Amino acid sequence: MQATAYTYDPETRTGQVLLDDGTPVPFDAPAFDRGGLRLLRPGQRVRIEVEGGDGGDKSRRITLITLQTF
């Protein structure tokens, strides 16, 4: 799944992405660390893997975030 980086806190390695429909979805440090990134800037296109989502947006959890490559 693709998204756009929206927020990122380098101290906690957490933030949010925006899905293509504009829905914000948070990510935690383990998801960031799994992607092997060192920095993330708002506006960057990213690839994410998610778990859940059938119980509404709050049940959706990002398990991996990395840069989108073409």
Descriptive overview:
Strands 3-2-1-4-5 form a 5-stranded antiparallel sheet. It is globular and about 30 Å long. With 70 residues, the chain is mainly β. It starts with a strand and ends with a strand. The mean pLDDT is 91. It has one helix spanning 29-34, and strands at 2-9, 14-19, 24-27, 45-51, 61-67. It is built from 1 helix and 5 strands.
Keyword list:
mainly beta, 46% strand, 5-stranded antiparallel β-sheet, 70 residues
Question: Brief description of this entry?
Answer:
The chain is globular. It contains one helix and five strands, in the order βββαββ.
Give the fraction of residues assigned to helices. Answer: under 10%
Structural class: mainly beta
The rounded distance between the terminal residues' Cα atoms is: 13 Å
Strand content: over 45%
Which blocks of ≥5 consecutive residues have pLDDT under 50? Answer: none
* Rg calculated over all Cα atoms: 11 Å
The total beta strand count reads 5
One letter per element, helices H and strands E, the order comes to EEEHEE
The number of helices is: 1
Average pLDDT over all residues: 91
Overall 3D shape = globular
Describe the strand arrangement of the main beta sheet, using strand numbers. Answer: 3-2-1-4-5
Q: What's the story with the biggest beta sheet?
A: 5 strands, antiparallel
